[in-house]
Write a structure and sequence with these properties.
The chain has a five-stranded parallel sheet, with helices on both faces. The chain is α/β, with parallel strands linked by helices. It starts with 6 loop residues before the first strand and ends with a helix.
Length: about 200
């Protein structure tokens, strides 16, 4: 692996295959990736349950953001979103001590702010490919799939903007942006391996 990039971050649209690309990269580069395991590590760091972190870890609504902005003016109040985010920051900085791949969690911006060099990837796809991928994931419950994708996108956008002040998907925040729908996930992995090796 290119020693200039000890840590790889993957930001992604919902349904663009972030976890799949991370897993393949992990196997080809011989370094661990953190997505679902990240939840366990953050739970240990924060004291929150894994369910709390899964529910609030990368999702925040306009209502939650508004309520938090009002209540955070009180010195005695810290929202669960803020506490979980703080724990995630500590977890990311600890993981970054060794070569790894981190999926989501504003990790590209967190590492940049800490002056830790990382190779930052953004994955996106057209709605047709994302819809197909979301069908395979079965995470929407009884909600219409299109509405579920829109909801997840909106929550991730609010979360990212709230904690970084940046808009997700802006090319300036990444080393490479790849369309997994047009290029294909396997081809995206091959491109990334060639760059990183």
């Amino acid at each position: 692996m290119n020693s200039d990039y000890k840590v790889i971050t993957i930001s992604r649209q919902y349904g663009a295959g972030g976890r799949t690309v991370a897993k393949s990269l992990s196997e080809k580069l011989g370094i661990p990736f953190y997505d679902n395991d990240f939840v366990k590590l953050t739970a240990k760091e924060s004291g929150f349950s894994e369910n709390d972190i899964l529910r609030e870890g990368e999702d925040i609504s306009y209502v939650s953001r508004f309520v938090n902005s009002i209540l955070n003016n009180s010195s005695s109040y810290t929202s669960s979103h803020d506490a979980i985010f703080d724990a995630q920051v500590r977890t990311i900085l600890e993981l970054a001590k060794e070569p790894c791949i981190i999926v989501g969690r504003c990790s590209n911006i967190i590492l940049s702010a800490a002056k830790i060099r990382s190779f930052d990837i953004f994955l996106y796809a057209d709605m047709e490919h994302r819809y197909k991928r979301a069908e395979e994931l079965h995470e929407n419950g009884s909600m219409d799939l299109k509405k579920y994708i829109e909801k997840r996108d909106k929550q991730r956008d609010i979360y990212y903007k709230t904690y970084t002040g940046h808009t997700p998907g802006m090319f300036q925040d990444y080393d490479i942006c790849l369309n997994t729908g047009a290029i294909g996930m396997d081809n995206c992995v091959d491109i990334l391996v060639n760059i990183l090796k």
